[in-house]
Specification:
mainly alpha
C-alpha cells in the first residue's frame, strides 16, 4: 500500500487492523512512541483502545447470538490483535 509515512497513518492502520500497512510503516521507520494527538496518546494507546472496542463488540454479539464463555471471547480477541502487538512492541 502506498501512502504517507506518518505516525497518524500508523495509528489509522492499527485502528483498521491492517497488519501489512503497520509492517510497512514500521519498516520505514515510523515511531510507535510519537504522539498521535494533542493529549500525547501513542500508537500503543490506539491499539489498546481498539482491542477493548473489539472485546466489547464480541461480548455484545455473543450475548445476542452465540453463547460463548468469557475466556473464549478473550482468547479470540487476543488472537486477532496479537500480530499488531508483536509488530509494535518489538520496536519499543
Amino acid at each position: 500500500m502506498e501512502g504517507p509515512l506518518t505516525t497518524e497513518r500508523l495509528a489509522a492502520a492499527v485502528q483498521t487492523g491492517d497488519v501489512s500497512e503497520v509492517k510497512r510503516l514500521l519498516d520505514a521507520g515510523v515511531s510507535v512512541n510519537s504522539p498521535v494527538d494533542s493529549d500525547g496518546h501513542t500508537v500503543l494507546d490506539v491499539l489498546v483502545k481498539e482491542h477493548c472496542k473489539e472485546v466489547n463488540s464480541m461480548i455484545e454479539t455473543s450475548a445476542k447470538n452465540l453463547p460463548m464463555e468469557k475466556e473464549q471471547l478473550f482468547e479470540t480477541a487476543q488472537q486477532s490483535t496479537m500480530e499488531l502487538v508483536k509488530e509494535l512492541v518489538m520496536l519499543v
